[in-house]
Amino acid sequence: MANPFMKWPLLRQIFQGGDARGFDAMSEATRNLRPKNDGAEVSRSVCPYCAVGCGQLVFHQDGKLISIEGDPESPISRGHLCPKGAASYELLTHPQRAKQVLYRAPRAKSWTQMDLDTAMDMVAERVWESRERTFVEEQDGQPVMHTKAIAHLGGATLDNEENYLIKKLFAAGLGMVCISNQARI
Amino acid sequence: MPGLGTSFGRGGATTAQQDLANADAILIMGSSMAENHPVGFQWVMEARKRGATIIHVDPRFSRTSAMADIWVPLRAGSDIVLLGALIRYVLENQKDFREYVLHYTDAPVLLRDDFRDTEDLGGVFSGWDEQEKAYDPTTWAYRGAPVVQKGVGNSRAGGHAKDRGGEQSRENVYERDLTLQNPRCVYQVLRRHFSRYTPELVEEACGISKDVFYKIAEAFCSASGPEKTAAICYAVGWTQHSKGVQIIRAAAILQLLLGNVGRPGGGILALRGHASIQGSTDIPTLYDILPGYLPMPFFGSDGQSLEKYIEAHKTESGWWNNFDKYAVSLLKAYYGDAATPQNDFGFDWLPRVTGDHSHIGYWLDMADGKMEGLFVMGQNPAVGAPNSGLERRALAKLKWLVVRDMVETETASFWYDSPEVHGGEMRPETIDTEVFFFPGAGHAEKDGCFTNTQRLNQFHEKAVDPPGDARSETWFMYHLGRRLKERAARDARPRNAGLNALNWDYPAEGAIREPVVEEVLKEINGYTVADRKQVAGYRDLKADGSTACGCWIYSGIFPNTNENRARKREAKDALGHGWGWAWPSDRRILYNRASARPDGSPWSERKKLVWWDQEKQQWTGYDVPDFTITKAPDYEPPEGAKGDDALAGDKPFIMHPDGFGWIWVASGLKDGPLPTHYEPLEAPITNILYPEHPSDPAASKLEREGNEYARTADPDFPYVVTTYRLTEHHTAGGMSRYLSHLAELQPEFFCEMSPELAEEIGVEQGSWVTVSTARASIEARAQISTRMKPLRINGKTLHQVGLPYHWGYKGLVKGDSANDLVALSEEPNVRIMESKTLLCNVRPSRSSNGSRRITESSGEAQRSI
Questions:
Q1: Are residues A86 and A104 in the same domain?
Q2: Are residues A46 and A72 in the same domain?
Q3: Residue B624: what pLDDT?
Q4: Of A176, B34, B323, B530, which residue is the least packed, with the fewest Cβ within 10 Å?
Q5: A16 and A58 share one domain
Q6: Chain B neighbors of A54, CB-CB under 8 A
């Protein structure tokens, strides 16, 4: 638009026609507005709440989440999300989201922050020691190969691949039998 | 899932949510689908638009009831009376789909002469051992079937493996009476078993009038036959009972009689509450099964050797004849090259089950100080578990606790923020538990797949990195395993043999060394060992160690190097083929051979799904046939045939050794071959049918200090309480109470009650009430509405109240936890607690702050508030 006077909606209406509504009535600032996910990358995703399995589109750019919306192509959800699914962006970005490892020593009254690697080393050490103290290799000449003193709980909110590794390491590797999750019937 | 597993052969929903649109009637019971699966509920609305009748049976009027044609309130825990009466209605009025029943179910099969029914023995079946509190199922077998060894292992433990569909009748041996007149045939035994489940009994026990009963019976049962089908949807309103599996069994019997299984618009849709709850039993984080519903080996029985293990579980006929292929391929996936024929493929490295190692089972050990460590990943038992007060106290007896979640949950903070600490019962200074809290990654921060409620695997792609030190469970497990394997490598004792052999070389990438998730999925799919080439499906698996497969029922999900079918997003038809991948073999409606007549032609044009193409000599249709594609409808197995070849061309339930849908479950269930009405563990009335056996005799009450029970018709606890969920919150709140919009939409814990009860106890809308059970007391705001109705039960008025269970002591909105009230109890098959019906009292007052359990050390409950 070469002529700066032509930015005025009134002049535009007079000289360029139109019905003076919608696009014609917009200021340049309004006309330049773009959806927040314009130009963003899209990942195909699935709602993490219930088991309906609604399709989600996760919009992100430069490593940052922009928004999460229902996937209109999903043959199950046809673009819909319920109040929980519609809140999934906040699920990932809310201020109470934990980002650091916390450690509480026996009898301590408060948490302390801990380095991730240190915590991993300490947990591995605890597992090893408890397993050493409680492992039963055999009884009456038959294999037992388990420890009943270390347990696991959880899985219905996790991915299949994660559950696979949990069962593989904990049961087939370490001999833990006390493994359970939310699923029953 | 043994309810579905034993009835049909697989422990999963038989149908897809979209297929509900094809139903002519839908019974929703034990679920408030519109509230808890709102987006899935659109398919119920589609059906209604097309003329289907929607029936909602629930103690509470909810959004689901509002959209239903008929809402029927019933007394919580009386479900089998109503379903049994529907079964009786079908039988007495000859409403069964006779051709389907004759050919596709075990209704004509003759039973042994020494079987005795609950009607003969006052509430137990033959084989009951009062001392052991367990059944010997020998007399439940088909007449003439060879008696197989008794149930494997500890009779009180295990159960999920029965999702395979039973263990005892391993051979295709039976006698049938196709006239259904023989008094020992399943059909006639069933008739006698349910003969007293009359509309009058429904009125007395459920609080449903005869008129209303006939209305729902006619609406549901008239919507079946060649031209019509009806579906049933349920959720934890059926499962969380001391007889939950048998409630689902009753629904399965009804659907088999009406010919509604394997057909469009029919089936049973189990509505699961977590994104991958189906996946977490398919690839289980459970104690009694391995991936693909292979049982965990039990000490002293099938765990003696690989040979015994295979012998105990490989059937002569039916699909489980392939058991050895799946078991050996799993061992190869676990132990890699170290698994050889000489060492039984590492079978002896697998831990043996020696008892009930389920959540409730081991938690009691924890409470008794017998456990050392606990990992909690994405679950919040301090709020979500039954008798959560007892569970929180048990956490204080651990040496160490690891919690992984996206927020600091109540479970992570029990040691400084629980009601027990605020009430002075526990003090941080005396709690020895060392606690590690690890922040978890969210679904958009990692690759992976969820299995939804209809067995559909959908991959979710990583969009961004998790914040700070937040990591996926894949990362955590991989790097923990790496550390432990490094340590075991220097220590060759037998206990470390499995750990040393464990195949754990997943490639890791990026700055945080995240394992490549699709490599794990490829292992789950399976591959040939020699060239590491993925197999196309489970038909390619071998028992000689030449193939590896992490979960045989998922085999086919990643059939080629670059083809992850869970990632597909091109839906081609109404059932969604081309969008994700459903186990097994992308079949969207299971047992769909039953959608055709015995001769292979569709029952009707309207209900066409899969049929036999005479010209091409194969099965074809709108779904992947759940059948060997070239097996003709008139195929008769030759003498000596094994496995699938031993099943005739008109036997749709291919997982079962006889190919039938099981109205009668000869083995595989711990509390009977047929469902029977028992009262809940806490009941307002005695069992009208069997006064000698008020509750399921095989269920465990686990009575102990801190887990006390009210007496039957206890005057101190005159009301029934049931728990439920709200649309705006998710389970124990870790994914919803921290979110501002959801917290604002449902800010406060409440107790829903009828105006009649409110008047009786003198409370007003919004005022505080104390709800107490024999275990605990909690406080809530009174929510008074006609959504709750007093019922007339056995001649007396009975009030029921409802509690949503989402609140705890962390998050943006806080409140007492309804699960503090629930008893730790165990259903006999899957060890689920009974949370959907308890006895309580409701008083107009606030409970004292802090520790709300009012039990003194003597174990005597003080019932004053």
A1: no
A2: yes
A3: 98
A4: B530
A5: no
A6: 39
Beta bridge partners of B806: none
Residues A88 and A47 in one domain: yes
A26 interfacial to chain B (CB closer than 8 Å) = no
How far apart are the C-alpha atoms of B392 and B410, rounded to whole Å?
A: 9
Question: Is the CB of residue B133 less than 8 Å from the CB of residue B695?
Answer: no
Q: What is the pLDDT of residues B345-376, one digit of tens each?
A: 999 999 999 999 999 999 999 999 999 999 99
Residues A25 and A64 in one domain: no
Whether A82 and A112 map to the same domain: the answer is no
User: Which residue of chain B comes nearest to A48, CA vs CA?
Assistant: B275
pLDDT value at position B858? 32
% of chain B residues with pLDDT over 70: 95
Identify residue A158 by its one-letter amino acid code. L
SS3 of chain A: the string is CCCHHHHCHHHHHHHHCCCCCHHHHCCHHHHCCCCCCCCCEEEEEECCCCCCCCEEEEEEECCEEEEEEECCCCCCCCCCCCHHHHCHHHHHHCCCCCCCEEEECCCCCCCEEECHHHHHHHHHHHHHHHHHHHCEEEECCEEEEEEEEEEEECCCCCCHHHHHHHHHHHHHHCCEEEEECCCCC
pLDDT in tens, B611-652: 999 999 999 999 999 999 999 999 999 999 999 999 999 999
Over residues B429-459, the pLDDT tens digits come to 999 999 999 999 999 999 999 999 999 999 9
Task: Provide the residue ranges of all domains of chain B, joining segments of one domain with +.
Answer: 2-270
* Chain B environment of A161 (Cβ under 8 Å): 447-449, 474, 517, 520-521, 524
B859/B793: higher pLDDT: B793
Minimal CA separation from B445 to chain A, in Å: 9
Give B236→chain A minimum CA distance, Å: 8
For chain A, how far is it from start to end, CA to CA, in angstroms?
67
Same domain, A77 and A104: no
Mutate to test the interface with A, among B360, B443, B570 (most CBs of A within 10 A): B443
* pLDDT above 90 coverage of chain B, percent: 93
pTM of the complete model:
0.95
Element (H, E) at B480: helix B473-488
The complex scores an ipTM of: 0.95
Residue ranges making up the domain that contains A14: 1-33
By C-alpha distance, which of B514, B515, B538 is closest to B527? Answer: B538
Contact residues on chain B for A49, CB-CB shorter than 8 A? 274-275, 730, 735
Cα B714 from Cα B708, distance rounded (Å): 13
Contact (CB<8Å) B276/A160? yes
Asked if residue B84 has pLDDT above 50, the reply is: yes
| Shortest alpha-carbon distance between residue A88 and chain B (Å) | 9
For residue B158, what pLDDT band results from cuts at 50, 70 and 90?
Answer: low
| Rounded CA separation B781/B764 (Å) | 9
Range among A10-14, B346-350, B668-672 rated most confident: B346-350
Q: What's the pLDDT at A11?
A: 78
The whole-number pLDDT of residue B467 equals 98
Alpha-carbon gap, residue B780 to B846, rounded angstroms: 8
Asked if A181 lies within 8 A of B452 by C-beta distance, the reply is: no
Same domain, yes or no, for A56 and A84?
Answer: yes
Using CB atoms, pick whichever of B39, B357, B435 lies closest to residue A82: B39
- Total structural domains within chain A: 4
Q: What is the pLDDT of residues B16-61, one digit of tens each?
A: 999 999 999 999 999 999 999 999 999 999 999 999 999 999 999 9
Least confident range of A29-38, A163-172, B94-103, B140-149 = B140-149
CATH of B2-270 given 2.40.340.10, 3.40.50.720, 3.30.230.10, 3.40.228.10: 3.40.228.10
Burial status of residue B492 (CB atoms within 10 A of its CB: 0-12, 13-18, 19 or more): exposed
